[in-house]
Amino acid sequence: MRRLPLAVAILAGLASAPAWSAQYRDVYDVYAPFSSLKGYQFLRANVKVVPAQRQIRAETIRLVIHARQGDVSVAVAGDGTMPFPLDATLYRENPAIEFNQPKGSIALTAGMEAISAPRLQFNFKLYDAMAEEYRRWQHERLGLLARMHMPSPKALLLRFPPAAHGAATVALPSGPLRLEANGEGELRIPENSEWSRQDPLITLNSMPATISLGMD
């Protein structure tokens, strides 16, 4: 996906045949950059196990970590989330792991979304704050190769119920600029260095369902 919530396939096809296994660190390295987000105001991690086939229900998927102290079973929730344990001892041990699904039938995806509380008025600096925080997370948590494959923030993305006919008025020094949502209820307020300097007030005609970063 090229917009938030972004989903980047980190371990596509990660799954288990009867004799197939990966190592603990393979999955740890996916989850670790998306954990412990207490120092971030807008970020929300989105790491999921995604079945490649419709007949596979996420809640039937199990991951087993074959640790020295005994097997650790990790269940997948109906929405695809999985509470994978990030444990220093297991990381040093690096045991084998197995899924209870055939190889290639599921994927492990990881992504990050930046979301602000819905509001009727805000300044354009909201975009700058959200984009800066997202870029800071990338530099603090991801290596160079991973950052190269992540899309960049390019807009504020507002989502309205389609029937709301959402619109925004940007109070520019040259006069008000009106932006309207498309037929799907999405309205993009684009990145603009001049607006970052001016920091205009933006007023919406109705409450959006979400305010997030739009990515390209």
Summarize the structure in words:
- A hairpin with a 2-residue loop joins strand 10 and strand 11 (175-180).
- The chain is of the alpha+beta class and 216 residues long.
- The strands form 3 sheets. Strands 1, 3, 7, 9, 12 and 14 form a 6-stranded antiparallel sheet that branches.
- The protein has helices spanning 24-31, 88-93, 125-141, 144-148, 193-198, and strands at residues 8-11, 22-23, 43-51, 62-67, 70-75, 96-99, 106-116, 121-123, 153-159, 167-172, 175-180, 186-190, 201-204, 210-215.
- The radius of gyration is 21 Å and the shape is elongated.
- The longest helix has 17 residues, at 125-141.
- It contains 5 helices and 14 strands.
Give the helix/strand layout.
Layout: E1 8-11, E2 22-23, H1 24-31, E3 43-51, E4 62-67, E5 70-75, H2 88-93, E6 96-99, E7 106-116, E8 121-123, H3 125-141, H4 144-148, E9 153-159, E10 167-172, E11 175-180, E12 186-190, H5 193-198, E13 201-204, E14 210-215
Antiparallel strand pairs: 1-7, 2-6, 3-7, 4-5, 4-6, 7-14, 8-13, 9-12, 9-14, 10-11, 10-13
Low-confidence stretches: 1-20
Number of helices: 5
Distance between the termini: 9 Å
Helical content (DSSP H or I, runs of 4+): 10-25%
The proportion of residues in beta strands is 35-45%
Order of helices and strands: EEHEEEHEEEHHEEEEHEE
Could you give a short account of the major beta sheet? 6 strands, antiparallel
pLDDT averaged over residues: 87
Which class do the helix and strand fractions yield? Answer: alpha+beta
Instruction: Label the overall shape.
Output: elongated
Q: How many individual β-strands?
A: 14
Rg, nearest Å: 21 Å
